[in-house]
Protein: Putative inorganic phosphate cotransporter
Amino acid sequence: MCTIRVNYSSIEKMEAISDKKVSVPWIKIRYVQMVLLFFLLGMSYAIRTILSVAIVAMVTTDTSINSDIPTFDWKNTGVILSAFYWSYALLQFFAGPIAHTFSPKWILTIAMVVNSGTSLLIPILAVHLGSGGVIACRVIQGIAQGFIIPLVHTMLGRWAPTEERSWINTTVYSGCSFGTIISMPITGYISASWLGWPFSFYLFGILGMVWCVFWIIFSADRPATHKSISLEERRYIEESLGQAEEENIQVNEKVPWRAILTSLPYWAVVVGAIGESWGSTFLITEIPTYLSKTTDIDIEKNGLYSSAPYVVAAVLTVIYWPLADYLIHSNVTSRKTSRRIFHGLGAFLPALALVWLAYEKNRWGIAALLIVAISLNGAMFCGYNVNHIDISPRFSGVLFGISNGIGQTLAILAPLLVQFIVYDETDKDLWRTMFVIAAIIYAATAVVFITYLSAERQWWDAISRPSKGDFQSELQSHRDQELINQ
Structure:
């Protein structure tokens, strides 16, 4: 790693003269940010996945005990389900650079207000404008949510110390599973009740607005701007990440685009993101329809079956991150090997489960295989996902925006391909083709990532931006010194 000298004298003076700073040593402010980001992803994924279950009730009569709940004769459900990803994928490319220039805190606030507001509008526009109104809302939600994950990565790059990176990153991203866990069964239950499917959009829209209030009060762009952080914690984070020198650098410092776009380790991350995006998008958007059309599972149980794998995924997350950190910090494996192990676990085993699922006929067997396919997928957060921060903590939001943008652009094809291939949604043979395609994409992209990844901070991420040769020489010297000390 490059050596970064941190001068804290100016920080101490600033702390001494700032009577607005409140030191609360028993509260770790970085963990407050972690919890807020966890619920941000939870609410955004809940709002994202409502439609996957609600669409079954929206186009099927007699799902609700309330006969006044509207239903529709829509044949373009594949287009409706994919509409979110049209704009979501496009925004990924711009969100990272925007976060590097403007305040992530306020961009996330605006994004969540828009995201929640459109959720409240979907039931109204569905009745008055038909499927076009729903598609318009989903496109707007895609724009809003397009900012969220790249900016979450930017925030993690500023708040998560190197020593805690794996577990903070994985804990925050387990919010995605949390949102799906609460969204799918609750939507299924509400859709079957007297309240009907519209209430699920109202419920999560309101919860999203509530999150915005807490976020505005308790969040900050970086440790240096948080009013309640202790000097000790601020020093710890900044020393770990080398942020102190960045205060003298303009916020809109030029992003090293050429170096990033010609970096082989980064393109390995991009390929890993493509595999994860395709698989997760296919499973989230299409599994409720698959269960509804090929089994005798009703709408209420459909939500439970669809969400059960995400419950297991959330539990396994508690195992993934401490195990990843233990393997690295106990020198059982290198950081690079750890990333390979967890990404492989999250790709190859789900691929096998999907192939098996293509031929499974028993209801309980289907449930078990879905649990394997979806829950183990979360291991990839300790693989390609955290690898963005490994290779570039300073530009991780930019990197994630590009990789997630490419991944989500290709993932748009998943629901559209289902609509094209599975022209008869009750035909299990047609669904079998889609499961095999998803399995191949999982496995092939994992092979590329595992082969070409790097777990070292790249030369173009250094604050002083040395040449690649100088950076590698300094890095090798640092490693040699570590060996001597051992």
Summary: Residues 268 and 452 are 6 Å apart (CA to CA). The domain at 29-244+252-481 is CATH 1.20.1250.20 (Growth Hormone; Chain: A;).
